[in-house]
Amino acid sequence: MTLSTRFTELFGVTHPVVQGGMQWVGRAELVSAVANAGALGFLTALTQPTPRDLHTEITRCRRMTDLPFGVNLTMLPSISPPPYDAYIDALVDAGVRIVETAGSLPPDRLSRLKNAGVRVLHKCTSVRHALSAQRRGVDAVSIDGFECAGHPGEDDIPGLVLIPKAAAALDIPVIASGGIADGRGLAAALCLGAEGVNMGTRFLCTEEAPIHRAIKEAIVSRDERDTELIFRQLRNTARVARNGVSGEVIRRLTENPEFEEVRELVAGARGRQVYETGDPERGIWTVGLVQGLIDDIPTVADLVGRVIQEAITIMTERLPALAGARG
Asked: How many domains in the chain?
């Protein structure tokens, strides 16, 4: 059995499960495994040093799967922004037909993607931003609750409120993101009105995720309390793993809320070294509250299979039984 929603039909996948873009992690090994399991995975464009490298990674992923996958492109304000337009050229030239966008979404770039026949899934952290994305013409939105890893926005609204609010307000499919690791989360999200779920931390802790096993084991050993919110003073909040570096970032910004105070601590190269060396104290790395629900390191195929089966069991056996008990 499987679960069919507007999302699976629109994006051409078997299961309503998404592996969103993750910096340093969204590579061909993981994304192809997600695709082969019937879910939707995203290569992370900016993990690749250049647009040419992205084109090469897309080709490499296609050698590992003939099923749909996409590319994540996160566009954030920056003094020295990456060549976003060149990355778009690379993915369009490579024939990519699904893109996950995050951050800002300038109308000209969205038009370029849509004119190339690309379906766009846009990540949002509030209903108002999701409505704006819908008006601009995206095909679906991923709504990130406060539980999520990375950037949860500044409103601090958890998924139990945010998901049904978004589903009620929008006409396009809504993907629930943040705090989801298993079939219970998928079933709950569907009951709240979403048409699929996005899992980041849970896919980070799989056999195929291209990171050091020690980091996966660290996720298994930790619980939902082992994260920190940094950059709150800068109104650019990020949820990351609790370690000595994140604690120092909070201390410095509390004393002087200027980015220059922490620039060297939060450098992306240090976060990459965490995944490469297996040292969780090497730098800042993102993880969600959902790590409290993770207790193993399965293959992607095993993970997706059990998420779907558990959700189906809940929806076809547990919920009807509860309703019948009252009837």
From this structure: 1
